[in-house]
Amino acid sequence: MRHFPRRTLAQQIARALQGNQIFSDAHNGLFLAAPRRTGKSTFLQEDLEPELERLGMVIVYVDLWADQRRDPGDLIADAIGRELAKHLGPIAKAAKAAGLQGVNVASALQIDTSRIGRMDGITLTDAVRVLHETAKAPVVLIIDEAQHALTSEAGETVMAALKSARDQLNAPGKVNLMLVMSGSDRDKLLRLVNSNSAPFYGSQIQKMPELDRAFIDFVSDLVERQRPDLRPVDRAMLDEAFAGFGRRPQFFMTALGEALSPLSSQEGRFEAAVIAAAEQRQRDDEAQMESEFLALKPLERAVLWRLLAQGDRFRPYDAEALRFYSEKTGVRVTTAKAQTALESLRQHNPSMVWKSARSAYAVEDAAMHRWYEKRMAAGAWPPTDSTE
Ligand SMILES: Nc1ncnc2c1ncn2[C@@H]1O[C@H](COP(=O)(O)OP(=O)(O)OP(=O)(O)O)[C@@H](O)[C@H]1O
Ligand SMILES: [Mg+2]
Prior knowledge:
Radius of gyration: 25 Å
CATH superfamily of the largest domain: P-loop containing nucleotide triphosphate hydrolases
Number of domains: 3
Bound molecules: adenosine-5'-triphosphate, magnesium ion
CATH topology of the largest domain: Rossmann fold
Shape: flat
Largest sheet: 5 strands, parallel
CATH architecture of the largest domain: 3-Layer(aba) Sandwich
CATH class of the largest domain: Alpha Beta
Structural class: alpha/beta
Order of helices and strands: HEHEHHHEHEHEHHHHHHHEEH
Strand order of the largest sheet: 2-3-4-1-5
Distance between the termini: 46 Å
Number of helices: 15
Strand content: 5-15%
Number of strands: 7
């Protein structure tokens, strides 16, 4: 599938980051949230990065989900180190050629870019500063799935170091370090900004705009070009189907491909088939969540239920929570038992509960909240196993 370019959005965000938008706080850090599979990483890498590069900035992109076995703190430090190494290389060459012995050059060249943020290496704050000084350009750090940084102490430390680098490098009217953080879950991202002890206290989380009607027009144009016999494509119907897929391009494109396939057995217009596929997908997603829920032990269900009902007010072991678990399971639940249940929800495959380094909890998949709300509204909560 061809990439649908989102240049206008990239330009708006670039302007905001540079502090050129009145009353925008983006120069203090831009926090973007959008549900899973809606095109966040693609936008950051294919649209925002090239736009910022065009403006002459240095970009460091790191996806904290890229390698889940590695500590998020190390991933960030390594990404900065790699970019710094790229800029130090040419300086080393130039310095040799010109016989340069400037103090700054010499000290920059002694930096071990693989030990940033370690005990024996330079601090992350200094590394960012040197990167800015050697590149002679503003630095943009894009951290994808940033909420993951909060699951380890090293990750938290790196976030605090970035905040301090931002405060040291930036001044009103002069933005040298820009931070863009994205995540698929607003509640988790909120923990970076919403308390006094949070590294980016005071910043707001914004909703990253999802792909809109312009994407449907782009796709419809492609269809009309390749299949003139299908003209005119019913764009409103395709938009409805796309919404049904939760504005997730991958699922939508797969369904579209199937509906347009010469092997497809369906009758009638292909747009209707795509809408039917979207409806089927929703049913499948909900059935999946239901069967995962029903496969849990009774106490695990009660703990997950409590978490869904309480959101960020969730306290796993307070008296009220323990009473709730006991009431739902019909047996007395101790703190130790609740702990075991919560831990097994975290270890579950796929993991169902997310925990920060400060023991704050959230459901791993934010779609579960929507499922819970929907069933609550329909009076169909909790799901029950008909074989029980
Ligand atoms: N602008 C676009 N044009 C065409 N396809 C796109 C576009 N944006 C995203 N997609 C497709 O949608 C899918 C999901 O995109 P992407 O990985 O960027 O989403 P994400 O929100 O980062 O997902 P995750 O939550 O898994 O990290 C990919 O298959 C990608 O190719
Ligand atoms: Mg992504």
